[in-house]
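Dear colleague,

Thank you for sharing your sequence with our group. We've completed the structure prediction you requested, and as agreed, I am returning the results in plain text so they can be pasted directly into your records. Please verify that the sequence below matches your submission; if there's any discrepancy, let me know and we will rerun it promptly.
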Amino acid sequence: MQCAPITVAMLLLVAPGAAIAAMDRSPISGTVTSKEEGAMEGVLVSAQRSGSPITVTVVTDAKGIYRFPENRLAPGHYAIRIRAVGYDLEGPSEAEVKAGTQGTMDLRLRRTADLAAQLTNAEWMVSMPGASPEKRQLLNCVACHTLERVVRSKYTSDEFINTVLPRMQSYTNASIPGAPQVRKGERLMEERGDQRVQVYRELGDFLARINLSTSAAWSYELKTFPRPTGEATRAIYTEYDLPRKLAQPHDVILDARGTIWYSAFGDQKIGRVDPLSGAVKEYDIAISKPEYPVGVLALRGDREGKLWLGNMYQAAIVKFDPASEQFQYFKPPPEDNLSSTQLNQVSPWNSGVDGKVWAQNSGFAGVHRFDLRTGKSETWAPFKDSKEPHNIYDVISDSNNNAFFTDFRQHHIGRIDAKTGEVKLYATPTRGSSPRRGTMDSRDRLWFGEYRGHNIGMLDTRSGTITEWKVPTPYSAPYDVMLDKDEHAWTGSMTTDRIARLDTRTGRFVEYLLPRSTNIRRVFVDNTTTPPTFWVGNNHGASIVKLETDGAN
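Please find the predicted structure tokens below.
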């Protein structure tokens, strides 16, 4: 195809506000239209240069106009794609960026012939019939695969109950369709026996009602969410593809130098990404339990610039020194190193208080504290006598290195006193909210995602009070929350492909749609930029995404 000659300076890292302003000198700009709507607001337009791992995306405004910043597209041949639910790109789909000129390229969209292929997990959930408790179970499925796989299936209720669900139960939380892993031991605080059979029965019956087991088409209307409007369109996305297509960048953070780091959820690796070139280097983490599943979950830094990781089924927490590229490992004692042991999370930020680092153990809903000098550990099992299911998902320390943990199967935040070892529980206002992961701010307020409550939660650890904010898009299922320097709380969703930013002073949300299907876990905010920049890994898409906004309130 032919397009007007266009130009751009070489790729640079600039402040988010400057990037938005640079759109006035765009190397590629144009209007997005369709026969049905005319000029279309809220269409995401992406450009990826041939041979480059980096894709840049902008969003059309109220007049349907998109503009790429002048400093984001280097000269070369670009593939163009769009995201607008219900539509496909009719043309053009390629562009040539040349030095020294600017260009205009209008895009035409047509109604898609396969709407089902474009729906997010949350759109499937609002489309399908069923009660909230039934749909709630689907939030377990999206950790490993999309709901499209479920609703397109033809399994009967009995096939779900006797074959499919037991197989799904046997896989680790780091499994994806292209790389499944089988557990060696079951978690000790989950449903067993008749209780599990009942869960299978209820879920199997529900899944067989919403899939294609009895008909060639779905019996329900497919519903979609509105495209972004207003402030949600004033954003620039930069996406870095990783070289391994089955890589799962679970946690993504930036170090003090602006280097990108990620934990590999399905592999024994920590990765480093150059934000200018997109070049990737990965470091191998040692195997300590050879017959057990591999993969790394949490990635957090300490005040000395070292990186700490939760090595899950390998039953260790790991300290990595980026300068020396050396690893150090801490493991629980043999009596706590069970077949079910799973050390996902680690909290090193306040270890300077007493020389100790906290970790959790999903295997038996426990918490460990490691002494960095001796390597020895202490263990808490707050729910060992409970008859209810429990799963301690995250552990976060306050400024005195007291530990706070989330109970993912219930609705509690727990506190372990660093000096006395006393455990105290705080209940969220929403029952069954499933607090998942979080971060502690400089005022010792714990911000966390309520996965099944669909809320952002905040525990004021000094007063003991919990405040909740409902994320606007249905079934948002927030995984993690982080507060920025402007008192905005950020979260992401495995179900909606949206990043939600909450102004905690006014209660106002802005939700930013991501350029493609994005299984979001840990969220990270870079407060060194103005306005702050948001980062997240696409855990099922082998990429890392940066979101820059204009910072308007």
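Summary note from our side: Confidence is low (pLDDT under 50) at residues 1-14.

Kind regards,
the structure core
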